[in-house]
Amino acid sequence: MRLSLATLARREFPFGFNRREVERRLSLPGVAAVIRYARLRGDLERLARGRYRSRVPAEVADRILDRLERTRERLLSLDRSFPGAIDGAAAVWAWTRGGYTAGMTPWRTVVLLAVPRSAVAQARRRLTAMGVDVRWEYPAANELGVFAVLKPVRTVERTFIAGVPVISRRVLEREIATNLAAYGPAREYLEDADAATEVLR
C-alpha cells in the first residue's frame, strides 16, 4: 500500500509545512520532487513561497492511515501458511523482538521476504490480497507506505517467532556477518531460540 505525502501531511502538518520540516521530521530524502508532483496532482496547495498545505480532507486521511496501519500489522504477522519467511532488516527486528529497528518508520515499512521460486506467484497473490505493495526491488527512499520485496530463492530455512515465519537464526547470522554496514551490532541483540526449523523448496 502506497501512501501519498499529501495524506500524511494532513496528519503531521495540519497547518502547513516546508521542505526542511518534512525532511527533518519524516527522514524523507528527495522530498522536493515529491512536493512538486503532489502540487501538480492538486493534492497540495501553496500557502507562501516554499510553504504548502495538504488538500486531503482530514477524515479521508484518517481512513487511509488506519488502513496503512492494519496492512503493516498483517504483513508483520504473517501466518504459518505463508509460503516464505521474513528476511533482512525485518528479520533482525523479529529476532530482537523489536529491540533493533533498521529501515522502518511509522510511515514506511519495507519487508524483505525470502520465498522459494516455486511459490513466488502464490506469495505475490497473498500479499496483494492483503493490500501490500509487492516489489522485486527496494522502493525509492522517498516512497511512503507498506512494501514487500520478494527475494526468490531455491530453498528457505525458516523458524517461527510468535507464530510468524522468519528465516532461521543461522541464516540471519550469516547475513549479518556479510553485511555489517547495514546491521552493525545486531547480532549481540538476537534472542536465543530453540525453535525447530523447516525448509521450504
Number of strands: 11
Number of continuous helical runs: 8
Principal-axes geometry comes out as elongated
Largest sheet: 5 strands, mixed
Topology as H/E string? EHEHHEEHEHEHEEEEHHE
Write down the domain tally.
Answer: 2
Portion of residues in beta strands equals 25-35%
Q: In percent, how helical is the residue content? A: 25-40%
Mean pLDDT: 91
Structural class by helix and strand composition: alpha+beta
Poorly predicted runs of 5 or more residues: none
Rg, nearest Å: 19 Å
Distance between the termini: 28 Å
Characterization of this structure:
By secondary structure, the protein is an alpha+beta fold. It has two domains: 2-56; 66-200, no CATH class. Helices cover 39% and strands 25% of the residues. The protein is built from eight helices and eleven strands. The chain has helices at 5-12, 19-26, 31-41, 58-76, 88-95, 120-129, 169-178, 180-183; strands at 2-3, 17-18, 44-48, 51-54, 85-87, 108-116, 133-135, 144-153, 156-161, 164-167, 198-200. A hairpin with a 2-residue loop joins strand 3 and strand 4 (51-54). It is elongated, with a radius of gyration of 19 Å. The relative contact order is 0.16.
How would you summarize what this structure contains?
The protein has eight helices and eleven strands. Strands 1, 5, 6, 7 and 8 form a five-stranded mixed β-sheet that branches. A three-stranded antiparallel β-sheet has the order 2-4-3.
